[in-house]
Amino acid sequence: MGHQFVLIISATIFCIGTAGFLIRKNPLIMLMSVELMLNSVNFLLVGYSSFLKTLDGQIFALIIMTVAAAEVVVGLAIILTIFRTRHELNVDHINVLKG
Amino acid sequence: MFEITYEVVVFVLGITAVLAAFGVILCASPIYCALYLIGNMICLALLFLLFNAEFIAAVQIIVYAGAVMILFLFIIALLGGKKEISEPSVQRSSAFTFVILLFCELLLAAAVKPTHPITGDMAPDVVNAIGSAKAVGIELFSRHLVPFELASILLLIATIGIICLAKFSYLPARRRLK
Q1: The domain spanning residue A22 has which CATH number?
Q2: pLDDT-derived band of residue B14, with 50, 70 and 90 as boundaries?
Q3: Which helix (H) or strand (E) holds B108?
Q4: pTM exceeds 0.95 for this model
Q5: How far is residue B161's CA from residue B114's CA, in Å, rounded to a whole number?
Q6: Number of domains in chain A
Q7: Once rounded to an integer, what is the mean pLDDT over residues B94-113?
Q8: Most exposed among A2, A89, A92, B32, judged by the fewest C-beta atoms under 10 Å?
Q9: Which residues of A touch B119 (CB under 8 A)?
């Protein structure tokens, strides 16, 4: 129950997040999948900072949490703006910029 | 007799986190996805506690499971959590192929033996002697001051961006679509 377990759990959650981002059509759930991926990376960093006996991983996880919070807030604001103008939430139908 | 040891707790929490992650992407209704995501984050916070990272665990609970997920729930309540119909398509199967390939590659990478020797001087007993939050604070404000300031600038930029999005983007877009 050491490095390998942390690596495998983190890789699994990361892949689940990638799958969710690719197959779901609701932008809210796509944002949640991105959160899953960021969380799995946080888990890996904290686990390895414990194994390697340094605190750098925890600092990095803290910075990632800040970035994730900012990213979620901006993403949700964009989703809200799109919903106010188009009254639907399906990423396949949002193609105004499509050439 | 079954005995609850450190390894068993870590194993059970890890498996629960993976199952909750599956719940996030498999539920049709966004509100259940959000609840599963909260479960996943709480499992990860407990794992952080077991890895001697009490401060990060508290931040995970307060910032992620608290603030960010409350924001998600507000938006779901505002937009109405409709169920989505999923139909099989070419994009879906190619996405699954990509994800399975990615997973196999990550497992290959995980099978490599450790290449970096353990050189740190922050053993768990050292960190516990001065306190996890204090140790992280000393590290953050001495060696990692520039990333900390950059993170604060990032938050400021995000705040300004959201105010711009909320204030200026609504009316012109509506006029354009008419």
Answers
A1: 1.10.287.3510
A2: very high
A3: helix B90-110
A4: no
A5: 42
A6: 1
A7: 88
A8: A92
A9: 52-54
Q: How far apart are CA B115 and CA B140, in angstroms?
A: 26
Does the ipTM surpass 0.95?
A: no
Please state at what angle helix B170-177 crosses helix A56-86, rounded to 10 degrees. 40
Alpha-carbon distance A48 to A6, whole Å? 8
| pLDDT over 70 at B175, yes or no | no
Judged against a pLDDT cut of 60, whether residue B170 lies above it is answered with: no
What's the pLDDT at A1? 57
Is residue A98 very low, low, confident or very high in pLDDT (cuts 50, 70, 90)?
Answer: low
CB contact under 8 A, B177 and A85: yes
In a domain, A92, yes or no: no
CB < 8 Å to A22, chain B:
91, 95, 98-99
The structural domains of chain B, with segments of one domain joined by +, span: 2-115, 119-178
CB A18 within 8 A of CB B99: yes
Q: Which residues, including other chains, have CB under 8 Å from residue A90's CB and lie 6 or more apart?
A: A25, A26, B84
Pick the CATH number of B2-115 from 3.40.50.150, 1.20.120.1200, 3.30.2310.20, 1.20.950.20: 1.20.120.1200
Q: Do A69 and B79 touch (CB under 8 A)?
A: no
